[in-house]
Design brief:
Blueprint (H helix, E strand, L loop, with lengths): L2 E2 L7 H6 L14 E3 L8 E2 L8 E6 H7 L7 E6 L1 E2 L10 E6 L14 E4 L9 H5 L7 E7 L10 E3 L7 E3 L1 H9 L8 E2 L2 E3 L1
Parallel strand pairs: 2-6, 9-13, 11-12
Antiparallel strand pairs: 1-2, 3-4, 4-7, 5-7, 8-9, 10-11
Length: 192
């Protein structure tokens, strides 16, 4: 379910460059290889190896995700190799998601977001912006400020977590479709 980093591939620079911009179409996505003991699943972990923010997903998962509100993104075909070095029978894609400041869309007064260590409620955008990267947050409920536009069903609060947060309706669709693999999602209740 996880990828092995190809030999000689440096990933740190690619994450930072491609977290806020789309790939140049000439930018080749390297083949990725499943680790020993892994199976073909719908969500594959190890996305940082590609560069930027996103998900390695099967065509089945892509079809589900495309039915929901997603942040600005692009979809690229991805070659995933099995442990013998052969392409898998499942078609995979890289769903490249641009980094956005989702905090600007949150109604903090109506949300239940707290500091994991102290339990203090984060009740304003200013309070949120004053936190440091090392501060860990717990997301119980997120309410959206509708004046800031539609909310996304999948997003990443990159200042504090590298786990995706998803709406209940997207979570239900994933469960109903019986998608498999390493789910990089944290349970959270999201209101429109």
């Amino acid at each position: 379910k996880r990828l092995r980093l190809p030999k000689g591939v440096e990933t740190t620079h690619k994450y930072h460059v491609y977290s806020k911009i789309f790939y140049d179409q000439a930018y080749p996505l390297e083949d990725v290889e499943l680790e020993e003991g892994s199976a073909e699943v719908d969500f594959i972990g190890g996305e940082v190896e590609i560069g930027g923010i996103g998900l390695m997903i099967s065509e089945k998962a892509l079809n589900i995700l495309q039915q929901f509100n997603l942040p600005p993104h692009e979809i690229r075909e991805l070659t995933v190799l099995d442990t013998r070095g052969e392409p898998t029978s499942t078609q995979y894609f890289w769903l490249h998601i641009l980094k956005e400041d989702e905090a600007l869309k949150i109604d903090f007064a109506q949300s239940l977001i707290s500091h994991r260590d102290t339990g203090d409620k984060i009740s304003s955008l200013e309070q949120y912006q004053g936190l440091r990267f090392k501060d860990k947050l717990a997301f119980k409920k997120i309410s959206w400020d509708e004046s800031q536009g539609p909310s996304n069903d999948l997003f990443l609060m990159t200042k504090f977590t590298y786990q995706y947060l998803i709406s209940n309706k997207l979570k239900q669709a994933i469960e109903e479709a019986q998608l498999t693999g390493l789910f990089p999602f944290e349970k959270v209740e999201i209101f429109q």
